[in-house]
Specification:
It is a single chain. By secondary structure, the chain is α+β, with helices and mostly antiparallel strands. The chain folds into four domains: 105 residues, Winged helix-like DNA-binding domain superfamily/Winged helix DNA-binding domain (Arc Repressor Mutant, subunit A); 207 residues, no CATH class; 132 residues, no CATH class; 98 residues, Cathepsin B, Chain A (Alpha-Beta Complex), CATH 3.90.70. Helix content is 43%, strand content 15%. The chain contains 25 helices and 21 strands. The strands form six sheets. The protein has a five-stranded antiparallel sheet with strand order 3-9-11-10-4, with helices on one face. The chain has a five-stranded antiparallel sheet with strand order 20-19-18-17-21. A four-stranded antiparallel sheet has the order 12-13-15-14. The longest helix has 16 residues. It starts with a helix and ends in a 5-residue tail after the last strand. The N terminus is likely disordered.
Length: 602
């Protein structure tokens, strides 16, 4: 890696320079090339540069576009990978898509609009947030296991249980462009839940079945809900919407250009695109927002989770440890009812909810979830080696008010009978419910961190951004990004090859007289034709002057020999938009002087 590449890597990784500031340092040609590629492909892969006509509409010659493209790759705004047969594919890294959505909104066109009035009705209300569902599903898989059949599919009875275990349904994800194996067997909402867990590295597929990854799980449940939502949203944006560039633009505009939390925005859909409606309904099902209908029947949407937070990078959290402390202070307590039911507000921390899963059963889940302390769960926990006093301490520490006496007595009675629990209940030890009282557990963790010189916030800061990687395999096939290595930290293997373009210019310039590109001069018709032909060969601009008028051409073809004419695009002024480019035909008698206009970089 060169010093330049290493410097760019360190800048991006450290987060010292935000993406918008990096974009502002690009040259005009680089911005135009990047904007054109972003408009056409969004985050899609592509195999080659656009034809000369597209660059001419941007006021760029082919040579300028190639050099700008090479520099964009060098600066890592464009990434490339080798395909299996030796060809290249290119893409804009996911980490830049949000910024480019903002800076190129006028170019792409707006897919969302702010609303002043309210909606006629709410078509689909937002469900409870998806992070809690994943936690519940993980706890069930850890207790019950999720084996595979000899054919490599999940058992039917397990699929049926997973399907009813969650508040999600097939209707939440109807008409999404999702491809996966065993469609006749797996409901789409079950596939999405398992795919999320696999992509977040919380679950791994083994030969015998699916297994919870304890190392990642322990990191995950210590994160605030907001960080979980952001990680989950990244997976959803990357994997579950339509694969075309138009749908990618829509998804990023919906998240980045909408008014904000709980404010309705209009979603124009003149073509009746089912993909747009499906994406909005999926977001509602996942708890990110809700869908409305205007008086004229048009679509509307509002976020129930701050969209700016969902798109935020981890490097943007300068005071991250303070954020964790604040969320921890704001975490609510649950309410243990006399009838053994536990009322759990939505802002109870994930770690507390996880522990609650192992001594109680979830009855319902909504904005306020209800669990019930059960004999079976308590017996299983105690039989797995967890002391009763640890569970009692947990209920007292995180419950509001006193633990009712008759519940304490029941817990003590149930714990005595734990020795009779069948052996199959002991196959999977229950993690993260300490065998010692909770306070003692915290003391031990604190001592360990002190010995390692690491605070809790530092440990989370180190680990929390390692959950989702775009190349992670899940159950859902991502045919629109084949063979792609994702993330802006990947290193291109052929940057030097791109930079050979500049070296080649040294040889090209040596093949022609210097005055051809240094001076404005009048030439003999045959020499003028040679210069024009060379401009077409090199795909550079040609300048011609007629009296006091100067024209910049992007020449396309020559016709004739003795009596010849030149056709190409004429840039009418310095503003590089399509309306200022015009196709024209010139004859050498129509101008006085001329010269080649080489790219600035050469």
């Amino acid at each position: 890696m060169s010093d330049f590449e290493l410097g760019m890597e360190q800048v991006v990784q450290s987060g010292r320079v935000p993406e918008l500031e990096l974009w502002s340092t690009l040259t005009n040609a680089e911005r135009r090339v990047l904007g054109t590629i972003f408009h056409k492909y969004a985050g899609q892969t592509f195999s080659s540069l656009l034809p000369s006509e597209d660059w001419a509409k941007e006021g760029l010659s082919g040579a300028e576009a190639r050099l700008a493209f090479a520099m964009l790759r060098r600066k890592q705004w464009i990434k490339s990978v080798y395909k299996s047969w030796g060809e290249h594919s290119y893409h804009i890294p996911e980490c830049y898509l949000s910024t480019l959505t903002s800076v190129y909104a006028d170019r792409v066109g707006y897919a969302v609009e702010p609303m002043v009035a309210s909606v006629k009705r709410v078509v689909k209300e937002g469900k409870a947030h998806i992070a809690g569902e994943l936690l519940h599903l993980l706890a069930w898989i850890h207790r019950e296991g999720l084996p595979l059949t000899g054919k490599g599919s999940i058992h039917k009875r397990s699929i049926q249980k997973l399907s009813t275990l969650t508040i999600l349904s097939q209707d939440d994800f109807e008409h999404l462009e999702i491809t996966y194996d065993h469609k006749d067997l797996y409901p789409v909402h079950v596939v999405i839940l398992l795919d999320l867990l696999l992509c977040l590295n919380l679950l791994q597929k083994m030969d015998w079945g699916f297994e919870v990854r304890q190392d990642k799980l322990q990191q995950w449940i210590r994160l605030p809900w907001s960080v979980m939502h952001r990680e989950i949203f990244r997976v959803c944006m990357d994997r579950y919407g339509g694969s075309g560039a138009e749908m990618q633009h829509f998804r990023y505009q919906l998240a980045g250009l909408t008014p904000g939390l709980k404010q309705w925005c209009r979603v124009p859909n003149p073509k009746g695109d089912i993909g747009i409606r499906s994406w909005l309904h999926a977001l509602a099902g996942l708890g990110f927002g809700e869908v409305g209908e205007e008086k004229n029947g048009g679509l509307a949407f509002r976020w129930l989770t701050p969209p700016a937070e969902l798109l935020k990078k981890e490097t943007e959290h300068i005071q991250r440890s303070e954020m964790y402390k604040q969320e921890e202070r704001q975490s609510s307590k649950f309410y243990v009812q006399p009838d053994f039911e536990v009322m759990v507000p939505p802002d109870v921390s994930a770690e507390v909810c996880w522990r609650l899963e192992h001594c109680s059963e979830r009855i319902t889940r909504d904005q306020m979830s209800i669990y019930r302390i059960s004999k079976e769960r308590l017996e299983t926990a105690v039989s797995s080696g967890i002391k009763l006093e640890s569970i009692v301490h947990f209920l007292r520490r995180h419950g509001q008010g006193e633990l009712p006496g008759h519940i304490l007595a029941a817990l003590q009675d149930w714990a005595k009978g734990s020795e009779t629990v069948p052996d199959h209940k002991l196959l999977l030890p229950l993690p993260l419910v300490s065998e010692c009282p909770y306070a003692e557990k915290e003391r031990q963790v604190g001592e360990l961190e002190t010995a390692q010189g690491m605070k809790t916030s530092e440990r989370m800061e180190m680990n929390q951004n390692h959950f989702y990687k775009s190349e992670t395999s899940g159950l859902i096939q991502r045919s629109h990004m084949p063979g792609m290595t994702a993330g802006h930290n990947d290193i291109d293997s052929d940057l030097d090859q791109d930079m050979d373009e500049k070296v080649a210019w040294s040889r090209r310039k040596a093949d022609v007289p210097e005055i051809w590109h240094k001076e404005w001069r009048k030439y003999h018709l045959s020499t003028a034709r040679q210069i024009a032909a060379r401009a077409i060969e090199w795909q550079v601009k040609l300048g011609i002057q007629q009296g006091n008028d100067t024209f910049v051409l992007i020449p396309h073809q020559l016709e004739g020999h003795e009596q010849w004419m030149l056709e190409g695009w004429c840039i009418l002024d310095s503003i590089p938009f399509a309306s200022h480019i015009e196709w024209r035909t010139f004859t050498p008698e129509g101008w006085d002087t001329m010269r080649l206009i080489l790219p600035d970089e050469v």
